[in-house]
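Hey, can you fold this one?
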Amino acid sequence: MLRPGKSLLSLKPIGNSSLDVRAVSNERLNDKLYLLVNSNHEIATSQLKTSDIDQESNIESKIQIIYSDESSNDAEIKLYRKRWIILLIFSSISLLSAFNWIEYNIVQDVVIFYYNQSLPDDPVKKIDAVNWFSMVYMLCYIPLVFPAMFLLERKGLKLSCSIGAFLTLAGSIIKCFAVDQNLFYLAMTAQTICAIGQAFTLGIPARLSALWFGPNEIGLATSIGVFGNQLGTAIGFVVPPHLVQKKDPIDVIEKNFYYILISVAVVCAIFFVLSIIFVSNQPVKAPSRAQLEIRKSASLRKEENDFEIFKQSLLNLFKNFNYILVLVSYGINTGVYYSISTLLNLIISNYYQDENENIGVVGLILVASGLIGAVVCGFVLDRTKQFKYTTLIIYASSFLAMIIFSITIQINIWTIFLTTFLLGFFMTGYLPVGFELAAEVTYPVSEGTSCGLLNSSAQIFGILFTHTQGRIIITYGPFYGNLFLIIMLLIGTILTAMVKQNFKRQEAIKMALKEIQEHQHI
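Sure. Predicted structure:
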């Protein structure tokens, strides 16, 4: 399941100074953006108030610009080789969690056939029941996102990673005992445990990269962490359809289910043990000057009450009309993506019988094209800085791609491969761009809080769309189910067009750069 990471922004001011810009609001400094500049000047600190760019939320924002002598901090900064081992372990845990998410729904027809005895008699309720294998991940995330974020930030990386790995392992083991035609509800219980585990790992990539990696590695490390989740989804789309097929006898289906589930459980056990052994909260020495300053400023965390800051952040977000527009439009786009991923088998099998293997390939293309789209769209945004127009064009392209997918689906399976590529490219490409837009309109509110609400919105819309589209497909056919999603994307495009170009973070950075240039001329 796709999730954006926290926003990191790197700039270079005029001259030879290097500028590391990083939001550290999840470290209790939600009204400060630290700009650490390596300079030959003596250590100096200045604060720049930016209340003029934040009138809408009635918060006075501060930017603290710290000029420090590079050699003075070198002894306190170190990169450890262990960071790559930790990243590999986490990415693998995330991969296994994503595989568990989609492994049942991509072979939905086989699951209904196999568990028929323990499913409701009503055909519609049968499909609804199986769809909950996917939707339970969305449902569990909604109430757990903020407790999981709090645990990650207050108790550390190791505990969150270990809890996620343990719950994924526990759910995977229980699934092995649920390979019985009468034990559908045991399988669903196991899936729920895996879903709870994922809530504790989805927020880790950005946190892990900030705590363990140098400033030039953060983007790469976060991308690798997120890539693990996407790779797990891609493998989940491909492997089950090749091993579990409806045309096989019950005993063969049962044997192949065992192959998949036991293999996953064994791999989960390996990486759970590795997480206990190797994962640490943070290295002894900071990986960057930015992290070093955050550690030195840790005493600021004691000045304010955790709950009060969190409550104030939420109030500020819900008073921000621009953010509400982004919140709803983001949820619609991502909810459509979740619905298509969950119901892919149901949609395509209406036109092409016994094509589960090709349906798996379609799912793989959806994920792979999305990874390409995220990189390309993020690159375009970095170069243009046109947050609203870039987001709007990508959103409108998702809307058009969904129309093309819906009206050409009957031609042949090869056409679906092409249209799915377009769909995945723009829908997933929207995710990081939409998140950056949200970060711009909500600055200086904690990006962790705004990100958590965006993800919660995506889960809510994902459940609503999956349930609604599934019912429409059963009653009227897949074209009308897709038409429902097209209408939703049109609404999302209109809402995106309504967002005003009030980009507070960009204004703050411009003011900071001006301050830096003035300092360099002193």
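The beta strands are 8-11, 19-23, 32-38, 44-49, 62-68. Let me know if you want another pass with a different chain boundary.
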